[in-house]
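Why should sequence recovery work at all? Because a backbone constrains its sequence more than one might expect. Tight turns favour small or flexible residues, buried strands favour hydrophobic ones, and helices have their own preferences. The token representation captures these environments compactly. In the example below, the structure is given first.
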């Protein structure tokens, strides 16, 4: 009986395989859509044997009638995907039972995409939680300091240097604003002198009785206009340098100071939280919270000290840079103004050469530097 059962099972497997192939090759179609006999196909040569095998096992528990299979269709796990069309070789057949997908495994574990999405969501939630907790602690510390109930870390020497820098920046902004106003007014005066010189020159040609007088004044206004353009070049260089010092160099240092002040507030907030926990009970839960608070306190302490060191270094370099820049610019401004109002054209031009200031060539179509402001 054991051997007979083995033969029956083997026959059942062979029958299923042949039925699947027979269902695939049942109706051959040529390139024009007409049916034809494929006598040269190996699969059709095996058809009589397959038919004998099917009808030779009538009454067997694993028997399936070929007509019933053709009507009801094969099972999903017994179908095949044929590459290359009907009548292809067995090498192009891919059993669908080997294809696995999410729809065939509804009870399987979550996919990789779902796990990645869940991981991103958890990470964002943790970031939001930390940010909320940090904001709460800092707000609490800030309110406590404002109402005089909380203590704050103070570096008197550094705080004094920061206040001096802010006051210096305000004063330099005033110098910058006034220098720009002087430039605008002086530019208007130079334009007026230029127009007046052209008018005198025109009247000199049309008024023979006053030709010499109009000619003298025309030359004078043209000379003043030329010296005024030279002075405008010097003042423009002065304004540009002060603007860089105030709005870039000083502003960069103040940004670092702002980061330092925020770090100081966070450090004091976590310090106050640790001190409050140390005053409470010493049970297991509290000890775990104290350990966590100690770690956070150390992290923010290191951040505070690092930014404090950065501020000290930047303040030092800023002071050195400020002295160097202002020494050069104040000397330029003084020499140029003095030479212009003294009428010393040679000294005025020499001042611009000394500081490597180049003016726009006369008659250039490009707008002047003041028109570009």
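From this structural description, the recovered sequence reads:
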């Amino acid at each position: 009986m054991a051997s007979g059962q083995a033969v029956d099972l083997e026959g059942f497997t062979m029958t299923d395989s042949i039925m699947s192939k027979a269902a695939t090759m049942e109706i051959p179609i040529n390139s024009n859509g007409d049916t034809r006999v494929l006598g040269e196909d190996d699969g059709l040569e095996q058809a009589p044997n397959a038919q004998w095998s099917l009808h030779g096992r009538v009454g067997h528990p694993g028997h399936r009638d070929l007509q019933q299979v053709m009507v009801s269709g094969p099972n999903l796990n017994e179908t095949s995907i044929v590459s290359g069309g009907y009548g292809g070789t067995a090498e192009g057949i891919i059993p669908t039972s080997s294809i696995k997908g999410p729809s065939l495994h509804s009870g399987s574990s979550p996919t990789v995409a779902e796990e990645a999405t869940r991981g991103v969501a958890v990470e964002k939630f943790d970031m939001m939680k930390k940010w909320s907790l940090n904001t709460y602690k800092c707000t609490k510390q800030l309110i406590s300091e404002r109402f005089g109930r909380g203590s704050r870390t103070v570096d008197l020497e550094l705080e004094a240097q920061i206040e001096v820098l802010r006051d210096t920046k305000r004063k330099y902004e005033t110098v910058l604003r006034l220098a720009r106003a002087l430039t605008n007014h002086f530019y208007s005066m130079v334009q007026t002198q230029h127009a007046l010189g052209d008018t005198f020159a025109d009247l000199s040609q049309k008024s023979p009785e006053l030709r010499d007088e109009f000619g003298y004044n025309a030359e004078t206004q043209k000379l003043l206009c030329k010296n005024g353009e030279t002075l405008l070049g010097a003042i423009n260089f002065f304004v540009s340098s002060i603007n860089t010092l105030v709005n870039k160099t000083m502003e960069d240092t103040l940004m670092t100071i702002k980061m330092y002040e925020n770090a100081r507030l966070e450090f004091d907030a976590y310090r106050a939280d640790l001190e409050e926990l140390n005053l409470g009970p010493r049970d297991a839960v509290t000890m775990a919270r104290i350990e966590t608070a100690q770690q956070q306190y150390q992290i923010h302490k290191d951040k505070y000290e690092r930014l404090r060191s950065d501020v000290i270094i930047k303040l030092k370099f800023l002071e050195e840079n400020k002295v160097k820049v202002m020494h050069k610019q104040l000397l330029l401004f003084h020499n140029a103004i003095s030479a212009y109002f003294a009428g010393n054209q040679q000294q005025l031009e020499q001042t611009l050469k000394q500081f490597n200031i180049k003016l726009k060539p006369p008659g250039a179509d490009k707008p002047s530097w003041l028109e570009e402001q």
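A few observations help interpret the result. The chain has a mean pLDDT of 74.
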